[in-house]
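pipeline: protein-struct stage 2 | run 1193 | DNA-binding response regulator
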Amino acid sequence: MTEQKHLLIIDDDKELTTLLSEYLSQEGFQLSCCHDGLSGLTLARKNSYALILLDVMMPGLTGFEVLKALGGKHTTPILMLTAKGDEADRVLGLDLGADDYLAKPFQHRELLARINAILRRINIVQSQHNATPALDINHVTINPATREVFCQQQLIELTGTEYQILTLLMENVGNIVSKQTISEQVLQRKLSPFDRSIDMHVSNIRRKLAPFSDNDKLKTVRGAGYIFLSGRD
């Protein structure tokens, strides 16, 4: 029997969480729910979950404040639930360490597809740990066995999505990696028009490397994608 994946839903919409719990339970997931940010933060810190669904607007603590409190060092993937068309919320959520976002209202099947995509890519990364050699390029080192990233021998705290994007770029050092490729290989979905999630994740990587970098690591090629520089470019 396949082990059930335990999900945490943090959303003050009790009717929605009930519907999602029923639907996702039928799809083989174990669910825990809470309806305010403070309770959600407590559960997120106390227990282990395969994934967290986190609403933005809630009493007590907002979803953004929960992300800030987790400090970007969490290993559990977080899928933000944002208001439809509110790009500012999406950008801020990604900047604070969310792995992906989904705008409300959404179809249950779309949510399920996003959840499965995130869990699938995590399984891929975990299965590659022992088979993938360490990467050491331009003073950035990735240790797949521990999922640790170092820049100039200083530990860099990356979210799971940021780690996977950086790994993909370093594996293709000196070559352009398109946003479409990043979206399909990391986010496990086709790139949507006007989707800025890849830009935000790359921006976060740059920001976290910058204090320990003596040269540029990532180059943006407008309209094409991104290049991880070898240091000799």
